[in-house]
Design goal:
Blueprint (H helix, E strand, L loop, with lengths): L7 H7 L1 H20 L2 H11 L4 H5 L3 H20 L5 H17 L9 H30 L2 H32 L3 H28 L17 H11 L1 H19 L1 H11 L4 H28 L2 H22 L4 H16 L5 H12 L5 H32 L6 E11 L5 H4 L2 H4 L3 H9 L3 E8 L2 H6 L7 H11 L5
Antiparallel strand pairs: 1-2
Helix pairs in contact: 1-2, 2-8, 2-9, 3-9, 5-7, 5-17, 6-7, 6-9, 7-17, 8-9, 8-13, 10-17, 11-16, 11-17, 13-14, 14-15, 14-16
Length: about 475
């Protein structure tokens, strides 16, 4: 009896389905390397380059503006190409060059911040454009019956890279003693991203994609835009999908920044705990993606996305109920419930992309998806800021709790520390000689006419305050009205 020998290369060549699975897995792996640098590396890059607080606030807005401006013109172009693979391939080459330039920003000297935002827009904005056109390419290259399996395998690759790269980058940067060393680490990671984008372009060339039919291609012209809008409005499947998905994204993006505030301000998580929690969420999403893939196959994407919505619904419930607990119990409570709510979110893209492809007419598909992505991008740009504004307006900066009539202008006092302040992160890490200075010498400058008396502080619901707020209340609570 002969031996059975498995030849991976021969199997890939003889089995088109397996070949498609592996190629999209590699493509997703390479793309996710760059995407995983978003939240961590870009902000750290700006900070170490000497960015001001205002410039830090522009890190998310600038790429979204670039993507929004370019989304429709790129959609026009993609709608005219022979295959839907052409634009993603060109964008991958463009991103390769952009990341090499992005890694060279410190070489621009006094113009480094200008160069930073130019190449930030080219890289992050370029990836947003790539993702929009990738959806069209995926729909043309993969048969409907295989989309779920291919997307699931690709998602597993994304989760793996999303866990490893941020942790590796953060830990290596921690080992660097100065700003220049940290910049060198970041530059190396961005140069690697440039290599990944170049390899990604080569992988895209290997993925077979059928040419568009004559009725699916349109002549370049402004008349394509109103025609695509008309299709979006008149198509009942797309109209229903668009309304539902925009409600989904608007509500999700509204608390995008508020979630970070909840993690840090109310749950009291530091940088290491945030990294651990994000990695834990990614691991759990990677484990459960197979379950949601089977659910899509046995039921439907419409059914599976209900679990995604339920997970998002649990998030505000988690934050609201967490504030009723004492500070010591908040973090474990938050991490457990937030982890449960985050697990279904791993199936978001798998469901949304397939629902989008099912609902979008084939004629003008690239342009329609570009218009749809433009709306999602605008939501991601504006809604987080609006959510924080509502949070602030509803009392996050409430000054009504302050007592008036303090005569505390232009003089200094020692701090009289209460128990919560002594146990805070600030004072437990403070050297003894510094603590002696601030508690025994008149070095704390005062120049205010409002505060909170100890009696008033005792009457407040202190379980609603964070450690930092409680400490601050104790510090100013020892001031007496004169």
């Amino acid at each position: 009896m002969g031996k059975f020998t498995f030849h991976p290369v021969k199997s890939l060549q003889s089995d088109p389905k397996l070949r498609m699975l592996c190629l999209f897995g590699i493509e997703g792996f390479l793309l996710q390397y760059a995407v995983s640098l978003y939240s961590l590396a870009n902000n750290l890059y700006a900070t170490n380059l000497g960015a001001t607080d205002t410039q830090i606030g522009l890190v998310q807005m600038v790429p979204n503006m670039v993507a929004g401006i370019c989304m429709i013109p790129v959609g026009f172009l993609a709608n005219r190409t022979k295959t839907s693979r052409t634009v993603p391939f060109v964008l991958a080459l463009f991103l390769s060059a952009a990341y090499f330039a992005y890694g060279s920003v410190p070489l621009f000297g006094e113009h480094r911040m200008t160069a930073f935002f130019v190449f930030l827009g080219m890289t992050v904005g370029g990836i947003a454009l790539y993702n929009a056109q990738w959806q069209t390419f995926f729909g043309d290259a993969v048969e409907p019956g295989l989309r779920n399996s291919v997307f699931t395998f690709r998602s597993r690759c994304l989760f793996f890279v999303g866990i490893v790269v941020p942790l590796l980058c953060g830990n290596v940067m921690t080992l660097m003693p100065d700003t220049e060393g940290k910049l060198i680490v970041l530059r190396i990671f961005f140069y690697i991203a440039g290599v990944c984008m170049l390899l990604q372009a080569l992988v895209l060339r290997r993925i077979p994609c059928p040419p568009r039919k004559a009725e699916e291609k349109q002549e370049m012209g402004l008349k394509m835009f109103p025609e695509a809008l008309n299709q979006m409005v008149r198509s009942k499947p797309f109209r229903g999908f668009f309304i539902c998905i925009m409600l989904f994204y608007l509500s999700w993006h509204l608390d995008w920044s508020l979630w970070y505030i909840a993690e840090t301000k109310y749950a009291g998580m530091n940088e290491a705990q945030l990294s651990f929690f994000q990695a834990l969420c990614s691991i759990c999403q990677m484990i459960f993606i197979g379950f949601f893939s089977k659910l899509c196959r046995r039921k439907s994407e419409h059914f599976t996305i209900i679990f995604v919505c339920a997970g998002l619904l649990l998030c505000p419930i988690t934050v609201a109920s967490m504030t009723l607990l004492p500070q010591s119990a908040r973090m474990p409570y938050f991490m457990i419930l937030a982890l449960i709510g985050n697990i279904p979110q791993g199936a978001t893209n798998m469901c949304v992309v397939q629902l989008l492809l099912q609902a979008t007419p084939k004629k003008n598909r690239a342009l329609i998806i570009s218009i749809y992505t433009l709306f999602v991008t605008l939501s991601n740009s504006l809604l987080p800021f609006f959510g924080v504004s509502v949070y602030t307006a509803l009392g996050a900066n409430d000054t009504e709790v302050l007592d008036k009539g303090f005569d505390s202008r232009n003089f200094s006092l020692p701090l009289v520390l209460q128990a919560p302040a002594l146990n805070s992160r600030l004072f437990t890490a403070m050297p003894d000689y510094i603590r002696d200075i601030v508690t025994k010498q008149n070095v704390t400058y005062n120049n205010h006419a409002a505060g909170i008396t100890p009696e008033h502080m005792a009457s407040l619901h202190t379980h609603m305050l964070t450690d930092e707020e409680t400490d601050f209340g104790d510090w100013i609570g020892v001031k007496r009205m004169r």
